[in-house]
Amino acid sequence: MAERQTGRFLANRLAAAGLKPQHHFGQNFLIDLNLVELIVRTAGLSKTDVVLEIGTGAGSMTRLLAEQAGAVISAEIDQHLFALATAELEGCDNVELILGDALKSKHTLKPELMDAVRRKMTDIGPQARFLLVANLPYNVATPIISNLLHETPMPAMMVVTIQKELADRLVAAPATKDYGALSVWVQTICRSETVRVLQPSVFWPRPNVQSAIVRIDTDPAKRAAIPEPKAFHETLRALFFHRRKFLRSVVISAMKEQLDKANVDRVLQQLGFDSQARVEELSPTEISRLIEGLRLATAASAPVYRPVAETTDADNEESRDTESGGADS
């Protein structure tokens, strides 16, 4: 196990298979065994846990996860690495390897992943816990984290290695350069912390940026408090599309298909927002309150559509009778 973490071993192992790291897949292997163990230890795994890993790689962390968790579902996009990992993980009966992209689209996970998670959780029973534990490929880290917060079940915890720049965005405060829609989305539902900042030297090949191990604890009650999470998230992204414009202008643009300017002004006034403020200055709590106010205003202003059923002459007669007697009823 320890030997597999070295850059030399991985380079030789991949070369023997005629392989080399693929930059377009975001392949940077974590080669420090102590850090691999730190990631797994931070997750605090038990045999009632179902772990999703994105980026199997050579299978080094996958094997360690399998030793401690009840089940591991690991996805690998590179068919050659998938074959290598399949051989490396022979005998790990609680590991299910899935070949393919973890994302169906930018805003949707591949359904097969969550189907496998739910199936394994059912096998374990009601005490099963779902976690994401992974050295995430840089190019998919944001959509993986963001989209998992929409899933059922939502991970109880995510322990991931990501770019430090992304880690900073997750915990960023209002009115800072790193604060954005992702900051608000994650902070509305989760508590995040940076466990360790990693230098490029602990990876092979070395990336050009620092990385970080991040722990994200989700709160199902907070997500349940959002009436329509997907609509909330879409509105949130729209609000930050022009983050430095004045709030009134941003809201009008974001809600142009749902609310007119008069309704937008009414919402801002009723909620006590300064129209000259900027969305990047608002806290996650304030933004959540704004989005809920916009949702309620949109629902109140939407026309009520009633289905028109086929009617008989008798139905029509009853309708006329009801309408003519409405004032006295």
What share of residues is helical? 40-55%
Biggest β-sheet: strands ordered side by side in the sheet: 4-3-2-7-8-11-9
Please identify the structural class as seen in this structure. alpha/beta
CATH architecture of the largest domain: 3-Layer(aba) Sandwich
Largest sheet: 7 strands, mixed
Write the topology of this structure.
Elements: H1 7-16, E1 29-30, H2 33-43, E2 49-54, H3 60-68, E3 71-76, H4 79-88, E4 95-99, E5 103-105, E6 108-109, H5 111-124, E7 129-135, H6 141-148, E8 157-163, H7 164-170, H8 181-189, E9 190-198, E10 203-204, E11 211-218, H9 220-224, H10 229-239, H11 247-254, H12 261-271, H13 284-301, H14 313-324
Parallel strand pairs: 2-3, 2-7, 3-4, 7-8
Antiparallel strand pairs: 1-10, 5-6, 8-11, 9-11
Helix pairs in contact: 8-10, 8-13, 12-13
